[in-house]
Amino acid sequence: MIEINGPASHSPFRLNQLLVSLQKIDPNINSLGARYVHFLDASESLDKQEEQTLNTLLSYGPDWQAGPNNGQKIIVIPRLGTTSPWSSKASDIARISGLKKIRRIERGLIYTIVFKDNKESNKLNELLDQLHDRMTQTILLDEKKLQSLFNVNEPKPLSSIPILSKGIDALMQSNIDLGLALNDQEMDYLLGKFVELDRDPTDAELMMFAQANSEHCRHKVFNADWTINGLKKEYSLFAMIKDTYRSHPHGVLSAYEDNAAVMKGGRGCWFSPNQNNDGSYRKIEDEIHNMMKVETHNHPTAISPYPGAATGSGGEIRDESATGRGGMPKAGLTGFAVSHLRMPNHKQPWEKTIGKPDRIASSLNIMTEGPIGGASFNNEFGRPNILGFFRTFESTQDAKSELSWGYHKPIMIVGGVGNISSSSVDKRDTQKGSLLIVLGGPAMLIGLGGGSASSVVSGKTKEELDFASVQRGNAEMERRAQEVINSCFSLGIDNEGDNPIILIHDVGAGGLSNAIPEIVDHSHMSADLKLRDIQNSELGMTPLEIWCNESQERYVLSIHSDDLDLFNSLCKRERCPYSVVGKIATHGNLKLEDDHFNNYPIDMPMDVLFGNPPKTQIHISTSEIDIIEDSLEGIEIEQACEYILRFPTVSDKTFLIHIGDRSVGGLISQDQFVGPWQVPVSNVGVTIRDHFSNHGEAMSMGERTPVAILNPSASGRLAVAEAVTNALSADIKSITDIKLSANWMSSIQTDPQKQALFETVEAITLNLCSQIGLTIPVGKDSLSMQTAWNEGGKKKQVNSPLSLVISAFAPVEDVRNTITPQLQPKESSSIILIDLGGGKNRLGASCLSQVYNIEMGLPPDLDDSDLLVKFFEAITQLKKDKKILAYHDRSDGGLFASLCEMSFAGNIGMDIHLNSNTKDETLRLLFTEELGGLLQVENNDLDEVMAVLNKYSLAKNSLKIAEVIKRKTIRLRADYGYEKTYDLNELRKMWSELSYKMQAHRDNPITAKEGFESIFVEDPGLCPSISFEPVNIQNESLRDTNRPKVAILRDQGVNSHIEMAIAFHTVGFDTYDIHMTDLLEGKRTLNDFVGLIACGGFSYGDVLGAGGGWAKSILFNEFANEEFKEFFNRSNTFSLGVCNGCQMLSQLKDIIPGAGHWPRFVTNLSEQFEARLNMVEVLDNKSLFLSEMQGSIIPIVTSHGEGRVEYHNNSDESILTKQQQIAIRYVDNHGQPAVKYPSNPNGSNLGTAGFTSVDGRSTIIMPHPERVLRTVQHSWAPKDWGTYGPWLKMFSNVREWVD
Predict the structure, then answer these.
(1) In the chain, is it the N or the C terminus that has fewer CB atoms within a 10 Å radius of its CB?
(2) CA distances (Å), origin 624, targets 501, 755, 765, 1193
(3) Is the pTM of this model over 0.85?
(4) Nearest CA-CA partner of 109 in 149, 81, 152
(5) CA nearest neighbour of 796 among 466, 396, 464, 347
(6) Where does the pLDDT of residue 136 fall: very low under 50, low under 70, confident under 90, or very high at 90 and above?
(7) What is the pLDDT of residue 256?
(8) 831 pairs with which residues across the strands?
(9) Given this model, what pLDDT does residue 463 score?
(10) What is the mean pLDDT of the chain?
(11) Are 886 and 916 in contact (CB under 8 A)?
């Protein structure tokens, strides 16, 4: 084994953070060091040239200090017996780089702890818990044991459960030991079936049955028969949901029968490479339909927030990918609900708690790590996240209580919209002999029994089983698998029969033990399978562990045997592993053969696995909820305003948004940020159908979960209505075009909890959606939302309220017609409140009641569903008539919060005048969360607007509530004489402080503070200044003939190639999909191309530094090095690198003429992925891409985690400046060089963001011009821009240069 020290693993401030946390455990710790170390398993010794290559490969990362090296060593390595994702990618790079002797490279961490008195800590185990993830890592204190890292463990045998000799007792014991969560009826069923078979079941068979029949997978409560107060109900919960589809099937192509629902889209054009020919990109007209899916990953996120949320995102993405015969995920949404944050040094007066068990993460930890996990997976896979919600809720009388409402088991919800071809919507039937294939990563012992674990109360299973049920993610592998799926379904766009995929299923809960049986059962077939043909990175696993583990990034699919060569070629090109694990059969059993032990871990009849265990019967008696209303006497308006703006449910969510890419794919029109000041208050996320039209899709969300404590049915109605009022920001033709996903979360241990579930399902289905034309074609339930533990001899429990989260999806007529909450600077304008609560101003379960911890009576409700329909129709009419300047819904925080958000977004003030006669009335009007909407309209249009509202019977519900003013103040007045004027910055500080505190807690506190302070300086907002005439694409650049060829280059993990190909195609190039595999295998040559474009993404998961693995696979591959060097030296060629491509090309500087002084790009100063709409200035430079653009200041999207410039030599910056090789730099909204965050998103000196070669033929930039080619791709743009934005000029320039 070869051992090579690596770079520092922690930045100075991260290392200090860790030191402080360790010192809290053991104050005797003086200092801490941390660095990476690499371990190599080689077939023989390396020669000097190979050693030099290896050392260069393993040189990466920022120039940080690693800290002390002398002290107690703690070595953290991947769990023994496993191969880490980092290892598989790094080992691939080494082999491509010519290091054939290396079998495997692995990476570990060495911590050096220095104690004040040189004594070993007596709290070592507590320290070790802080330094490793016990699910994926092993701690070694003795370096001699490192050799075991490359040991290969022997396979372990299966176990059998002796039910023939020990009967039901044996099953009951296995139920506990394996965490199966089987109920008594299911154990009786299994006992009977195996007695009939006259054999004992294997542990693998029991685990498979438990996963396939878990509440998580079978939804037994939603399919149960209900008897309430002695009367049997006609409908099950699921039947009531299906009634919405039966009543209104229009626009739904697939419901309840696939991984995602499919709603009708419309004509559009795919832009994809020709897989049957030369890889040239082309437009293909097709019916492009919309997938919708929303999932939850609550239990794993409670146990381990980062991987729990990450694999939640990855699992939902796979649901969309595995719809029909393959789909394309497009844009995502994310939501979190947790108990009180209780931040150290920022605790709030409303944050009362009864405590929590040690085994689950705290709310603060969940909201620190969970959002990063979800965002990181989305970012690396390449799916923008453009919508979400965040709620904190915990309700207890006092700290002595032993029962509380709250979200100790959090809601982690993730969903999205995707597109699918009409040719791929329906799964097909397999035939005897059809191949069963596992596509994606190898099996690993992570995530075991997740389906069962998610079906039980937190605290009711063994702690080790809780941790065993949490998966770990590898987004770059999922990207590779997605590219294979894309290739397959694109083959079917021209000719439906060419898609080799018959049907596909994602591997999620239960692992292969769930996915393979489901895909086999689809056609009522059976299967012959080979256990040892399953790719496996952990050979020491038992058959149960191989069959049931939930290793992520895998799909099961079926193809005909004749298509295997084609499928193999597609996988090989993408470097995506796959294995043929079996064939479809007709003998009736699921047979899994183990060649190693010469036995069958699985030989179960399909009708036993998917038979009919006794249907769940639920009997309950109903009860009434007591409503209490305390006095509002002690509440002062000013304090209430402050509390509401500071309350996490209401406050600024920036810390949850800027961490996620919101532009990848180039099909986002509206994300969370609105206006020139980019304030996160959008009601809706809007995507564009394709790269050529203005049609699109909208997503919105609605939830009012605290209301369920008082009136569960009302909470459901409010959730549905809020999703609709939010969706109204988009150009949706009819309310019946909206399709809903319903995610149900609850504890159902008691009759009242079950009653709440039944009544709420009935309320929103039969009595609401079915009545007004809304359809619920997809959803999910999670019915173990409680946490129980013992503390000091007392049993404590926290239950979530019935929590219905509605996500709405709809086709959009024209994405240019989206309206936002941004107040327009028109002083002769007013704000109208449309009050769907009919003046009742109910405060029960409101944010006001939560911040004061007092009961406030009845909660809001949707009393008249027809009123919601009329509201939709009225707003739609007013949008069509162009009468609405700004629009916002009224929801959490009430009228005051909504008006503040509109002012924040417009950076302008208002005068609010309330027709209230007492403080009590004023509080109710300001803070009721009754349904409604706020419209900014010009005063000249007031009469026309009121006439439209009267037409739809809304005039009596509508009143002028405020006037827009130029001053940056909000003046609040009431009829009884109350008056208060707030400075807008004063309110904004209240609203944004939590986001700042969370960011400072999680990221670099220096940049967090700079970002917070930037809010309060005089800021004109985004102010483009364009020095050139817009490109006339029809007359100048689009040529039908003589289209030069451009290579759109990608490697594994690249995810921004489509939008880049579109950019060059638009200005008159023919673009070609060129994978590094094509070049390395000699199938394609760069001699065919005039342009080489390196695209953005996460090549090799950035394991050897951002873009480093990609670059080094070129530099140290003799063939590739010569190919690229020859291309760069041809005087008629050009090259461009953007983001990851920029990082990659910067490391090829030694073979690019005139690029010798280019820097490298390292971790952002914030130490966080940063995604923003920033301003850049085009400097005087020689880039042929930026000709005639010098001096322009242009908005551009930033999306990177490693964009900080780090020069190799002290003189490089001055040389590049002198030679006019610095191409662009970030500037603030005043046009000055950006020296502070967030105008400077990465911390580069003077905001430097791009470079060019001496002759201008090669350019590298970190931000993404290709994602904002069209005006509709900006979250905000000046109204006078045409179809295309200024960045089209960049691509047009290079087309003119070629001529």
Answers:
(1) C
(2) 53, 10, 22, 63
(3) yes
(4) 149
(5) 396
(6) confident
(7) 93
(8) 936, 962
(9) 53
(10) 94
(11) no
Task: Please report the pLDDT score of residue 538 as a whole number.
Answer: 84
Partners of 289 in the beta sheet?
A: 420
pLDDT digits (tens, 9 = 90+) for 1053-1071: 999 999 999 999 999 999 9
* Strand arrangement, sheet containing 775-782: 668-670, 685-688, 696-702, 803-812, 739-745, 775-782
Please say if the pLDDT value at position 450 is more than 90.
Answer: no
The residue among 882, 933, 930 whose CA lies nearest residue 728 is 933
Q: What CA–CA distance (Å, rounded) separates 281 from 1065?
A: 8
In order of 408, 412, 891, the CA distances from 794 in angstroms are 18, 29, 38
Quote the tokens at residue 448: 């075991």
Q: Do residues 388 and 333 make contact, with C-beta atoms less than 8 angstroms apart? A: yes
What is the b/e burial string over 816-837, where b = at least 16 CB atoms within 10 angstroms of the residue's CB?
Answer: ebbbbbbbeebeebbbbbbbbb
CA-based angle 735:736:737, to the nearest 5? 90
Q: Please say whether the beta carbons of 368 and 1001 come within 8 A.
A: yes
User: Are 1181 and 1220 contacting, i.e. CB atoms less than 8 angstroms apart?
Assistant: yes
Q: Which two three-digit tokens encode residue 652?
A: 């600024």
Alpha-carbon torsion (1265, 1270, 1271, 1272), positive or negative: negative
Distance between CA atoms of residues 1247 and 1237, nearest Å: 10
Nearest alpha carbon to residue 40 among 93, 101, 84, 96? 101
Packed helices 85-96 and 48-57: angle between N→C axes, nearest 10 degrees: 130
500 prior amide bond cis, ω within 30: no
Name 196's Cβ contacts closer than 8 Å, sequence gap at least 6. none
pLDDT of residue 595: 97
Q: Do residues 1071 and 1094 lie in contact, with contact meaning Cβ atoms separated by under 8 Å?
A: no
CA-CA distance, 1143 to 1120, in Å (whole number)? 18
Give the H/E segment covering residue 585: strand 578-585
On the CB side of 660, how many CA atoms lie within 13 Å of its CA?
A: 29
Element (H, E) at 593: strand 589-594
Cα-Cα end-to-end distance for the chain: 56
Spatial distance between the Cα atoms of 729 and 698, rounded to a whole number of angstroms: 9
Q: What is the pLDDT of residues 974-995, one digit of tens each?
A: 999 999 999 999 999 999 999 9
CA neighbours closer than 13 Å in the CB half-sphere of residue 738? 33
Nearby residues of 708 by Cβ (< 8 Å), 6 or more positions away: 715, 716, 756, 760, 801, 802, 803, 804
DSSP β-bridge partners for residue 380: none
Tokens 């320290």 belong to 127
The radius of gyration of the chain from alpha carbons, rounded to an integer in Å, stands at: 30
The DSSP bridge pattern shows strands 102-115 and 29-42 to be antiparallel
Q: Report how far residue 1254's alpha carbon sits from residue 1156's, in angstroms, rounded to the nearest whole number.
A: 9
Q: What is the pLDDT of residue 1036?
A: 45
Handedness of CA 43, 47, 49, 55 (dihedral sign): positive
Position 1041 confidence tier, pLDDT thresholds 50, 70, 90: confident
Active site residues: 1139, 1264, 1266
Handedness of CA 473, 421, 576, 1136 (dihedral sign): negative
pLDDT tens-digit map of 235-271: 999 999 999 999 999 999 999 999 999 999 999 999 9
Q: How confident is the model at residue 455 (pLDDT cuts 50, 70, 90)?
A: very low
- The DSSP-derived string for 977-1008 is S-EEEEEHHHHHHHHHHHHHHHHHHHS-HHHH
State both tokens at 1186: 């930026």
Give, in order, the Cα–Cα distances in Å from 54 to each of 98, 100, 1104: 10, 11, 12
Q: Give the residue among 809, 811, 893, 779 at the shortest CA–CA distance from 413.
A: 779
How many angstroms from the chain centroid is the CA of residue 630?
41
Q: How many Å apart are CA 6 and CA 37, to the nearest integer?
A: 5
- Which structure tokens are listed for 586? 């007709």
Q: Which residue has the tokens 């999306």?
A: 1199
